[in-house]
Amino acid sequence: MTWAATVEAIRERFRDEVATPRELPLLFGTEPPHTVDAITGHWCRVTVQAAARWQASTGSAGKRRFRTAGLLLVQVFAPLSTGDGELLEIVDAIDDAFLGVQLSVPDGDDPPILIRFRPPFPFGEPQRDDDVWSRCDVRIPFESDSFGGAAP
C-alpha cells in the first residue's frame, strides 16, 4: 500500500463528488497560496493528513493488515461580498459526499486499500478569514486498511 494511492483516492472522490459538479476551484495542501489570486468566487483547499498508523492483524509477510487513521481537512472559502448561503451549500455537499462512505482502492497485486470515512465535524458558522474571504472548515476523520509487511 502506498500513502500516495490513499491520498489520490481521497482527492479524486472530492473532485468527482464536490468540485467538478460545482466547477469549484481546488487547491491541495502542497500548492502555494498565491495561486488563489486569480480566483474570484468560491474555492476549497483540501489537505489529507495521517495521524497514526499501527499493525491491525498478524500473519505472514505481505498478509498483515496495517491501519492508518487520518483526517481530511477541507477549508471552504467564499468572498465576503457573497454572504454565506452558497458556502454552506458546499459544506452540505461535502457532508453528502463522505458521510458513511467506504472506498476500495486497487493496490497492484495486493488486496485493495479500504478507506472508511467517519462523520464530518464540526461545521459551525463561517468565519471571516481576512478582508476578502469568509471560511468554513470541515474535518472528516478516516481510517484506511492496507496489507503488507516485509519478511522478518
Could you give a short description of this structure?
The chain has 2 helices and 7 strands. It is of the alpha+beta class.
Structure description:
By secondary structure, this protein is of the alpha+beta class. 22% of the residues lie in helices and 42% in strands. The chain is built from two helices and seven strands. Strands 1, 2, 3, 4, 5, 6 and 7 form a seven-stranded mixed sheet that branches. Helix 1 packs across helix 2 (85-98). The chain is elongated. The relative contact order is 0.22. The model has no long low-confidence stretch (mean pLDDT 85).
Using brief descriptors, characterize the structure shown:
152 residues; alpha+beta; STM4215-like; 22% helix; 7 strands
Note the topology:
Blueprint lengths: L2 H20 L3 E3 L14 E13 L8 E16 L5 H14 L3 E6 L2 E8 L9 E2 L4 E16 L4
Parallel strand pairs: 1-2
Antiparallel strand pairs: 2-3, 3-7, 4-5, 5-7, 6-7
Helix pairs in contact: 1-2
Global mean pLDDT:
85
Beginning-to-end CA distance, first to last residue: 18 Å
Largest sheet: 7 strands, mixed
Order of helices and strands: HEEEHEEEE
Stretches with pLDDT under 50, minimum 5 residues: none
The number of distinct structural domains comes to 1
